[in-house]
Design goal:
homodimer, six-stranded mixed sheet, DNA-binding, 339 residues
Chain lengths: 339, 339
DNA sequence: GAGCGCTATACATACGTATTCAAGACGCTA
DNA sequence: TAGCGTCTTGAATACGTATGTATAGCGCTC
């Protein structure tokens, strides 16, 4: 039954050549005559031969595999950030197009992920996705650099030039979202963010928010700022706390769609209508357009982001150097911010 | 500079033993003395040694890697079924717990996926997820069986006993959803499904729907049935077509949440309120509870499903035999179906 | 016609591990 | 003390590929 899988020797025997010739023929070496190549290809086709990934990876010193690390402390039953999820399909496709496989994994901040993947030669490089507190994993990033591991990170390039990063133009996104609200006549715009120095993206969005306000002659006030992790529940709580603190706001800019959706729920629960109180989010996850009212948000193109991430990583692997990329964002206006 | 990565020979030298002993010590062979094992482990730790996956995979004849195939004709920019996405995290985690890595891939129906993964020894087995028309890929499934490839499929076990499957109790789900609507006093319940023999899950849900109706003394009518792929847009169109055909319905049971959400939008657009016209979905994707009103739906537990999928596949790989599993479902009542 | 360059192929080997087989050390029994 | 079993280790080897080096064939020049 189930016979042994064919090796390059089997192909060689059928094609009447040596094993090395088979290898060369299949990998497109120019030193193989057309006639020979044809015979080899035919034999390979006939036996359904595929190069053994393990043997090949052992001989060359790479695997043509990338590892995708969701780099966050993921509680047992929590949801993955939907924006990252929307990156997944495009990343897989891009990898395939570039001849790579994609390994996927979640990693606790506490684990030894930084040595596992490259050291065991499972992957040639790593894509890091994480919305956790950056300061917590920065030391591991440094160790990665130290060991010469290739990696690329989705995040913010402004957070200390460590490794290659691909990011959205967060400052501009914050600026456009806020400007849009100002144009709608809003003046008291709450900012729902995430606190601390560990979230550079949020800080950049906050800077854009401030710039827009100042351009309109308004000085940003701290009482309009409240923190919420990217989850429906925290967004809801953030608005509840604003209301109970008696803060008088007429619009909300939340730095994540999930929080924005939670915010809308809290508003509606409090008897406030949207867009009477206008809401703008950030990300443009699928649920944003399904929400009611559909959510105005800063759109990050997941296809573009995914491709930039993969391309940057592959470039780092293959040519040793990679450049940071900042991707443009675009405001998508829906009913949550305009009457 | 980046020095050569350590091999088991390096560890052997430090620990003062031979390479085979290192291999045995690390893989937990009982024939290594405690003292020796300690020395080996210490040396490995010191050099940050990790077993080379390629060499190991070549020597043994498996890779301890599973491949996840989103098995569908995925148009360039379409979204992945959110339910599958919610399976992802739990699957990855389960794989890690069982000592496997997970490769992820999308495959066109037309591609040679069925030979690629196992033949090139990238993976020891395959998880197949797909909501495409089953009849289209059935021949490939047969080829997979023929070649002795290990795989498990999310779907319906009733569709022809080919390979191992893990599925929800679709018939029961359809029954409970419909019974719930009947208890709310609904009598004219539209069924939004997906057509043809290629979707056994949908057929099972339809059977549950019929059983519930008949139990209430109602004979199902074809005019209440309309087809829609699992997408917001098609769900919306389905309701529009019901309305424009003048069908008088007072509730909707849609076999996917995304279609159900689209249906709610169409209702609201037509000036009909939900839950005045009650809506029930299937899946319980994250967006279901975020919709407005929050969607009543048949909940499939993604953690349980993911674990069943992985466990079944690993069992098939390691012991050669695997059993189909049917997972229970549970109705989650939210505001879209009750006043 | 000897020497040269070029093409196409073969030979030999290395990648790093896991396993089979053999053997050494040791304690125990008769 | 010879013999035997147990426990632990080492030597040898195979997994399947890719590549550096060598070689054979051939057409060409001077």
């Amino acid at each position: 039954m189930m016979q042994r899988r064919p090796t390059s020797f089997d192909i060689a025997a059928i094609a009447g050549v040596s094993q090395p010739t088979v290898s060369r023929a299949l990998s497109g070496s120019p030193s193989v005559s057309e006639e020979t190549r044809r015979r080899v290809l035919a034999a390979a086709e006939q036996l359904n031969y595929k190069v053994d990934k393990n043997a090949s990876g052992l001989r060359r010193q790479h695997t043509k595999t990338l590892a995708l690390l969701f780099f966050e402390e993921l509680p047992e039953h929590s949801e993955i950030n939907p924006f990252y999820l929307s990156l997944l399909g495009p990343m897989v496709r891009r990898c395939a197009d570039r001849g790579y496989d994609l390994l996927i994994s979640f990693q606790q901040l506490s684990s030894d992920w930084h040595v596992d993947y490259e050291d065991s030669r499972k992957a040639d490089g790593i894509v890091l996705l994480g919305y956790g507190n950056y300061l917590q994993y920065r030391p591991k990033l440094e160790k990665l650099v130290e060991r010469g591991t290739h990696f690329v990170r989705w995040g913010s390039e402004g957070d200390g030039e460590i490794g290659a990063t691909v990011s959205s133009d967060n400052e501009q996104g914050g600026f456009e979202a806020t400007t849009h609200l100002l144009r709608q006549g809003r003046r008291r715009i709450a900012f729902i963010g995430t606190g601390g120095a560990g979230f550079p993206e949020v800080q950049e969005r906050w800077r854009g928010y401030c710039r827009a306000l100042r351009a309109a002659g308004i000085e940003p006030e701290d009482r309009f700022r409240v923190d919420a992790a990217p989850s429906e529940c925290e967004g809801r709580a953030a608005v509840a706390s604003l209301i109970s603190a008696g803060i008088d706001f007429d619009a909300i800019f939340a730095v994540s769609d999930v929080a924005a959706i939670g915010a809308m729920h809290a508003l509606q629960q409090a008897g406030l209508s949207v867009p009477e109180t206008a809401v703008v989010g950030f990300d443009d996850i699928p649920a944003a357009s399904l929400a009611s009212p559909p959510l105005t948000t800063v759109t990050q193109d997941p296809h573009r982001a995914a491709e930039a991430l993969i391309d940057t990583l592959i470039q780092s692997i293959e040519s040793g150097a990679a450049e940071d990329q900042v991707l443009p964002v675009r405001l998508t206006v829906r009913e949550s911010s305009v009457p």
